[in-house]
Design brief:
Layout (H helix, E strand, L loop, with lengths): L4 H28 L14 E8 L6 E2 L13 E6 L6 H16 L7 E7 L16 E5 L1 H10 L7 E5 L4 E7 L4 H14 L4
Parallel strand pairs: 3-4, 4-5
Antiparallel strand pairs: 1-7, 2-5, 3-6, 6-7
Helix pairs in contact: 2-4
Length: 194
C-alpha cells in the first residue's frame, strides 16, 4: 500500500504539532499537579525549607552598631540564632560563618552576617572586634519564630535568609564549612535577587 502525498503531508503536520504541543501539555499537567516529576534527590548539603518561612516584621535591638531599618532584607544573610550567652561553641560557629562569607570572593558583598540573640541575650565585649561586619542583635520574638518553626534549639543551626526576609535553608552548627560554601555559592549564582 503506497502513501499518497496528502497522507504524508498530514503525518508530517501531525508530527510537528505533536512536537510543539506535547511539552506544553506536560508542563500544564505538572503545573496542575497531575504529574509529579521532581527529582528524588538534591545536591544541597543543607536542609532546604519547602516552602520557605516568611519571617514577620521585627525591630531588633542592635548591640554593636546602628543599622538601617532593613535588617535581614535586601541581601542574603547567614544567621545564627544563639543562646543567652555566647560561649566558645557560639564563637566557633560565628567564625565559620565569617570564613564562609570571606571565601565567597566576588559574592561576599551579597552576604550579610547576623547573630540573633534572645531578649536577655549577652554578647561578650571581647568578641565584638572579631566580627565588625556582623549584625549582633537582640530580637527575642524573631528568635522564637525561627526556632519554633522547625523545633530547633538555640545555637543548633546556621540559617540562610533570602533578601525578601524568608527563611530558606539551615545547616547544623557542626556542618562542614565547605558544604555551606557550596550551597551558598550555588544559591548566589542562581539568584537574581540580593
Amino acid at each position: 500500500m503506497s502513501v499518497t502525498p496528502s497522507n504524508a503531508g498530514r503525518r508530517q503536520l501531525l508530527l510537528i504539532a505533536l512536537v510543539f504541543f506535547a511539552p506544553l501539555v506536560v508542563a500544564w499537567l505538572m503545573y496542575l499537579g497531575v504529574i509529579d516529576w521532581r527529582p528524588t534527590s538534591s545536591s544541597a548539603h543543607g536542609e532546604l525549607f519547602d516552602p520557605a518561612l516568611s519571617l514577620p516584621p521585627h525591630e531588633p535591638e542592635y548591640l554593636n552598631k546602628i543599622y538601617p531599618d532593613d535588617f535581614l532584607r535586601e541581601r542574603w544573610t547567614l544567621a545564627y540564632v544563639g543562646m543567652t550567652d555566647c560561649n566558645s561553641h557560639c564563637e566557633q560557629t560565628l567564625l565559620v560563618m565569617r570564613q564562609v562569607r570571606m571565601s565567597l570572593g566576588k559574592y561576599a558583598d551579597r552576604i550579610g552576617l547576623a547573630a540573633i540573640l534572645p531578649q536577655d541575650g549577652r554578647f561578650p565585649d571581647a568578641l565584638y572586634p572579631a566580627f565588625p561586619n556582623m549584625e549582633i542583635v537582640r530580637a527575642g520574638s524573631l528568635a522564637q519564630v525561627i526556632l519554633a518553626s522547625h523545633q530547633a534549639q538555640p545555637g543548633e543551626w546556621i540559617y540562610i535568609i533570602d533578601p525578601l526576609g524568608n527563611l530558606v535553608m539551615r545547616f547544623s552548627n557542626a556542618a562542614d564549612p565547605r558544604a555551606i560554601y557550596n550551597d551558598l555559592k550555588r544559591l548566589l549564582k542562581l539568584s537574581r535577587i540580593g
